[in-house]
Design a protein that fits this description.
The complex is a heterotrimer. Chain A is of the alpha/beta class. Chain A has seven helices and 13 strands. Chain A starts with a strand and ends in a 5-residue tail after the last helix. The chains are: A alpha/beta, B alpha/beta, C alpha+beta. β9 of chain A pairs antiparallel with β12 of chain B, so a sheet runs across the interface.
Chain lengths: ~260, ~325, ~575
């Protein structure tokens, strides 16, 4: 199986984020890490390769610093990497990123494309699905399990409230992978060494420009959400407090 | 025209759709645009009728035997020509797992963009902006569309109040549309939907969370918090020391070294409110805190605070809640 | 049940051969790698038929990324950087060039500025840097030079064969709280090396193993330490100029404690502020993080920080012992650099330039060994000789008795320091003795119950959340994260002592001296004394204070799973 894993580099979860001057994005001078859901997508791809053989290729779109994500993936066992390198990629909407990916992999023949559930910065949860439409492939989201089946694969899809569903699909297909389904493997010393010699293809913005369109979504402004919080203290003996709180839960919070 | 695509699962209307309708009605009032709705399925006429009882101009019942079971291919095949034909300015849907699965495909098929998981909207002049959380709630973004309509947006559960949807003066017209969905278009073969005891709990999906901290004192007292969680229909969670002590499993931990949640209701029992915990729950819609220390930092983020002994407050609270639910 | 981290036994470990393994990606280790690379490049260009390879030279760094565990004030004396990379100022990340210094003596409400800045504290020509950013930049150069940096890997054990160090064992990854392998278990590698260069920074754990194994502290003064607790603040513009340096002594410490504060103006209105407390104070209830908070309440500091925002927190110990406490730095299969050796000038409060120089000197010896393929003890001893005939020795020799002079209080220390200034460092004796800091802790029974002169430093406080902070809030700003499900890496050799002896004798000072709230005594009904030790290992900021200061010497700090620890962005 030839699997492409789309990965993104995002600011570290606890990094102190600051708004940039125009208030439309964050300042770039923070620490970055791999988008955790993508790490799970990579893990699943590597497991599929271990089970069925094949190749795992990782791709990312971002500035030079994003290469780190690819190197780590190669160290964990991916075979090849593709880096769409340009700082401008940070400003593209999900659709354009998907178009850039589609443009970069035109010449290749993948069986499966994996993405993480969503990114920890944007949280759009769309890139994978958009990519499937651009490629003209079937897709399924929030996948827990993948098995080979006649005519393709059988996947286990997670639904709300503890429900699941099996779906049979032909290949090639795009899957967005649920987080936490496997324990993430560690890169080993030998893996890191070997990663240095694995192919890392750089793709310039100009090379995928023909596939792109103008952004259809733009962030007008980014801001710290203001919460005008007034704490209402409930007083009195426990029985009173219980009653007052229940009333509020029923009539104001509306959870009863 | 605003088009709301309500959600049905297995022939039942997903009531979160009313939240989307509430939001759509608000936008309609501000823009003066007409509001219409559509339901997609096979034999879902009753659902269309129910939706038609709300204040809107028209409801479409988009029918095809291929739409009986949900598949993204069928839903896109049915909706794409419909939307191309109807030319709404805005297409709105609730941000459910099902919508996440097909809506981006639908928008892309029409060459359009979708802004997902919005918590609201703003009208600035004649520009419509959609508000959504970014960086796991640390920031909010106002997102604008560029280019031609239709524009697609999905609303987060709880962004609007389903019970505030306006009823119509008279039932709106219902038009049945026979969608042309060839069986060959369906590439996915869905199996039965089944329930399974999940291995790991996903607190990020819980609407109500009852969380315990050191104030619970002993492991056996967690039973009290469980009673409250059960009465409310919520999940139990905890701050770090409780999970460290092994009183609750690690996947129940809320905070910087655990999960980040933003439920409709977060009840913090005996939690002091150290910043490591706060960052994991401060996005909750409503926070109720019970702590015997009036200076506990948790009260700074709580909407409702009770300074008291949780062992005295919880039992009567559980009773009152059970009573209120029964009526 | 507390289970402590220990390398797994009876398993097959992957092996890797190396020429040189540098443990630690701080300024010393990186300077060593860079210099080695320069020497190899030079050699290779002159001997095209006798190429030396960089393929088998590795740097091990326990942080996820280089620089994340680097913390210092910091002021850089550019002397050694100019030797390593002439003109480095043009591309290195430098906050500011020092423009002016002031030294204050503080009392509770007042301040007295020293009319003349003592010569050792004159910083003209030095740079205010963020060591984290500086190390990141050096790390990029090391990687660009073709030397592999394994970040996220800790050196957990030395490999020995007889009296020779033959390599380093890296950390076991994916072991759970009971030290059992998890699904993604990866055993640590046995990295066999012709020479292991220890550049672990202050109180290195492998260095400690080495010193104990070979008795390297025989005939040496015990190493003594201080702990620096630091905060990074964003201030309204104009409060303090970039390059402005302030040192303080006195308040909130009393004459019983050694220490003082620094305030350095950086760029973008960010200042570095911190307090160093000598780890030789008498009252075990003293809390160095608390000392920093108390310091900020002084009117001069409060006025400076008014309206500002604390953006980062961290802490690290520093070796004060000086020349007489430095062990032999070369041996059979090993070299020791930087803070691990104790190359720090406690009088000038600077060590980064010495760390870098030691790295360069080690690289020269390492290069010779590579070129001759001779890694014998005799060859490696060349490093010892280089250090002893370099300006490292010159500089440290002049201050060899400095810190020890303060063992009998501040005034005595000043007197000795003054004397040493005019006797080339000698003072009253050729070699002043030293006492290990933890041995100077007094028992609670010997101290006034309410703290006496230190009362203001040991009562309960919560901080106001704007100017001063409780420990957990401060800790949150250190970006500290560890894999939660792993054994405790603070190895306590006898936990019974905690609740049977320490609780009454010293009051469990680990709860106070740890700047990260790792240690807690919690109520336990079924235990003698009613309280038992509870650890929060994932809070650990890797400062090593516990390893240094615990009065019974029963705590050994070992590296947790690589990749975990603080994230000292901008520090």
């Amino acid at each position: 199986m030839k699997i492409l894993v789309c990965m993104k580099q995002v600011p570290q979860k606890d990094a102190p984020l600051k708004l940039n001057e125009s208030g439309t994005w964050i300042r770039e001078d923070v620490s970055y890490e791999v988008n955790e859901p993508d790490a799970y997508a990579l893990e699943e791809a590597l497991r599929q390769k271990e089970k069925h053989g094949g190749e795992v290729v990782v791709i990312t779109a971002g500035p030079a610093r994003a290469q780190q994500v690819l190197r780590e993936a190669l160290a964990k066992g991916a075979d090849r990497a593709i880096h769409l390198e340009d700082p401008a990629f940070v400003t593209f909407d999900a659709a354009n990123i998907a178009r850039a990916f589609a443009g970069a992999i035109k010449e290749e023949k993948f069986d499966l494309v994996f993405t993480g559930l969503q990114s920890d910065d944007f949280g759009f949860a769309q890139t994978g699905v958009i990519l499937s439409e651009l490629l003209g492939w079937p897709h399924a989201t929030i996948i827990m399990q993948i098995e080979k089946a006649d005519g393709g694969i059988k996947v286990k899809r997670e639904l709300e409230a503890g429900y699941f569903q099996y779906v049979e699909m032909p290949l090639p297909a795009v899957l967005t992978i649920q987080s936490g389904i496997n324990k993430l493997r560690y890169a080993t010393l030998i893996g890191i060494k070997q990663a240095k010699n694995k192919p890392l293809r750089k793709v310039a913005l100009a090379d995928v420009q023909p596939s792109l369109v103008a952004n259809q979504l733009n962030i007008q402004r980014l801001y710290v959400p203001q919460k005008a919080k007034k704490t209402e203290m409930l007083e009195g003996p426990p029985a009173d407090v219980a009653r007052k709180l229940t009333e509020k839960l029923k009539n104001e919070v509306r959870v009863l | 025209m605003i088009l709301v695509i309500v959600e049905q699962r297995e022939g039942k209307l997903n009531r979160v759709s009313f939240e989307t309708l509430t939001g759509a009605q608000a936008i309609a009032r501000e823009t003066g645009w007409t509001l219409e709705a559509a339901v997609v399925g096979s034999g879902v006429g009753e659902i269309a009728k129910e939706v038609a009882g709300k204040k809107l101009a028209k409801v479409y019942d988009i029918e095809s035997p291929q739409l009986a079971a949900y598949t993204p291919d069928a839903f896109v095949a049915a909706l794409k020509p419909f939307i191309a034909d109807q030319k709404p300015t805005l297409v709105l849907m609730p941000h459910t797992y099902q919508v996440r699965d097909f809506a981006p495909k639908l928008a892309t098929a029409l060459g359009r963009a979708l802004v997902s998981d919005c918590t609201g909207y703003k009208k600035e002049g004649d520009k419509l902006l959609f508000v959504r959380q970014m960086f796991q709630g640390k920031f909010a973004a106002d997102v604008a569309f560029a280019g031609e309509p239709p524009y697609f947006a999905t609303f987060q559960t709880g962004a609007f109040r389903g019970d505030q949807v306006e009823a119509g003066v008279a039932p709106a017209a219902v038009e049945t549309v026979q969608a042309d969905v060839p069986a060959s278009a369906l590439r996915n073969k869905p199996g039965e939907v089944f329930k399974e005891a999940k291995q790991a709990v996903d607190l990020t999906q819980a609407e109500i969370i009852v969380s315990v901290g050191r104030g619970i004192k002993e492991e056996k007292n967690i039973a009290l918090a469980r009673q409250l969680a059960e009465a409310l229909g919520g999940e139990i969670a905890a701050s770090r020391p409780i999970c460290d002590a092994g009183w609750l499993p690690m996947d129940r931990q809320i905070g910087s070294s655990g999960q980040t949640v933003a439920p409709k209701l977060y009840v913090a029992l005996g939690i002091s409110g150290a910043i490591q915990h706060i960052v994991g729950m401060k996005g909750s819609r409503t926070i109720v805190a019970v702590n015997k220390d009036s200076e506990a930092p948790i009260f700074e983020v709580a909407d409702i605070g009770i300074v008291g002994n949780l062992f005295e407050v919880i039992p009567p609270l559980v009773e009152e809640i059970k009573k209120a639910k029964a009526t | 049940m507390l289970v402590f981290r220990k390398p797994l036994t009876g398993i097959d470990r992957p092996q890797m051969e190396a020429d040189v393994v540098i443990v630690g990606g701080g300024p010393a280790g990186l300077a060593c790698a860079l210099r080695l690379s320069q020497l190899i490049d030079e050699h290779n260009s002159k001997h095209p038929d006798q190429q030396l390879s960089k393929e088998n030279i590795y740097v091990l760094e326990k942080a996820r990324e280089i620089g994340q565990h680097c913390l210092s004030g910091a002021l850089l004396d550019p002397r050694s950087m100019r030797e390593l990379l002439p003109g480095f100022e043009k591309e290195a990340p430098i906050e500011a060039e020092v423009t002016k210094e002031a030294v204050y003596f503080l009392t509770k409400g007042g301040k007295f500025k020293l009319p003349i800045t003592p010569p050792p504290l004159r910083d003209h020509g030095n740079y205010v840097i963020s060591l984290n950013r500086f190390a990141k930049w050096l790390g990029e150069k090391v990687e660009a030079a073709g030397i592999t940096v394994f970040s996220g890997f800790a050196g957990s054990e030395l490999l020995l064969e007889g009296e020779c160090v033959t390599g380093v064992r890296t950390d076991d990854k994916g072991v759970d709280k009971s030290n059992q392998p998890k699904g993604n278990f990866e055993p640590g590698y046995d990295l066999k090396a012709k020479v292991v260069i220890l550049a672990e920074g202050t109180r290195g754990s492998l260095t400690k193993q080495l010193v104990a194994r070979f008795g390297l502290d025989r005939d040496r003064n015990p190493m003594t330490y201080g702990v620096g607790v630091k905060e990074l603040w964003e201030l309204p513009p104009g409060r303090i100029a970039p390059g402005e340096v302030i040192y303080t002594m006195g308040w909130p410490l009393t004459t019983h404690e050694y220490g003082g504060a620094w305030i350095y103006g950086g760029k973008d209105n960010v200042i570095s502020l911190g307090f160093v407390t000598g780890l030789d104070y008498p009252d075990p209830r003293l809390d160095p993080q608390r000392v920093l908070q108390e310091f900020k309440l002084h009117p001069m500091v409060r006025a400076l920080l008014e309206g500002g925002k604390m953006i980062r927190y961290g802490a690290k110990s520093l070796p004060y012992g000086g020349w007489w406490a430095i062990p032999p730095v070369a041996g059979d299969g090993w070299l020791i650099l930087g803070d691990s050796a104790g190359f720090l000038n406690s009088q000038r409060l600077k060590g980064i330039h010495l760390a870098i120089k030691s790295g360069m000197l080690a690289a020269e010896t390492g290069f010779e060994a590579l070129a001759q393929n001779d890694f014998s003890a005799a060859r490696l001893a060349g490093y010892q000789r280089r250090v002893e005939s370099s300006w490292i020795k010159d500089e440290l020799w002049r201050v060899r008795n400095f810190h020890q002079g303060f063992e009998h209080g501040m005034w005595a220390g000043m007197f000795h320091a003054g004397l040493q200034q005019i006797t080339g460092g000698r003072g009253l004796h050729a070699r002043y003795p030293a006492t290990a800091g933890h041995l100077r802790l007094k028992k609670l029974a010997q101290l006034p119950a309410a703290g006496g002169a230190e009362a203001h430093l040991i009562n309960d406080y919560k901080g106001d959340g704007k100017l001063t902070f409780d420990k957990l809030t401060d800790l949150y700003h250190s970006g500290t994260k560890h894999e939660e499900d792993q054994p405790a890496h603070l190895v306590i050799h006898d936990t019974n002592i905690c609740n049977t002896r320490c609780v009454t004798e010293f009051g469990n000072p680990c709860q106070h001296f740890c700047p990260a709230s790792v240690y807690e005594m919690v109520e336990a009904a079924d235990v003698q004394g009613g309280k038992q030790i509870h650890l929060n290992p994932s809070n650990c900021v890797h400062c090593k204070t516990c390893d240094i200061m615990d009065p019974y010497e029963i705590i050994t700090w070992v590296p947790p799973e690589g990749g975990g620890g603080p994230n000292y962005d901008g520090m």
